[in-house]
Amino acid sequence: MTRAGTLGSVPPNSPQASGLRTRIKALIPELGKFGLVGGFAFTVDFVLYNLLLRAGAETLTAKATSTVIATTIAFLGNRFWTWRDGDHTNMARQYTTFFVLNAIGLGIALACLGISHYGLGQIWPALRSPFADNISGVMIGTALGTLFRFWSYRRFVFRAAAAPVPAATPSPSSQ
Predict the structure, then answer these.
(1) pTM, 2 dp
(2) Given CA atoms 39, 144, 60, 132 in this order, what sign does their dihedral have?
(3) Cα distance between residue 101 and residue 152, in whole Å
(4) What distance in Å separates the CA atoms of residue 63 and residue 6, rounded to the nearest whole number?
(5) Are 119 and 137 a contacting pair, CB within 8 Å?
(6) Terminal alpha carbon distance of the chain
């Protein structure tokens, strides 16, 4: 029994508690794989972005290029490892959807970078430095884009395969 104004706990054997616990346990390996693939792709993005900046590429062009290459790596890792058991009936649709959603994720990162470098950089010139660009574009932009990507990949690209419907067996009376 709970007093007025307090919340009681959910009993450990309730359907709500066990259902949530089951969903979280199933999500942990998926998040781990997604994180490893994303970490590798992030490293490629980070290193390539900085190489392109040092080679004289424009800030947004460098970020767009590094992100497209990292996205290709992420697609392959997620398709063939993270969600290898998902529904993969139409690879062209899946690849296209993946890249469209990544374009949105790229837009999130570019928006963070653009706001920092070109917007706030007009007020505080220190925000136009490569270090500030890495913080806003690579760290903040990628983090926000990653949250969007995990949700959208799971929902639209690598959906769980539908469980096969068991064939109906004729009843003894219908034979």
Answers:
(1) 0.61
(2) negative
(3) 7
(4) 50
(5) no
(6) 57
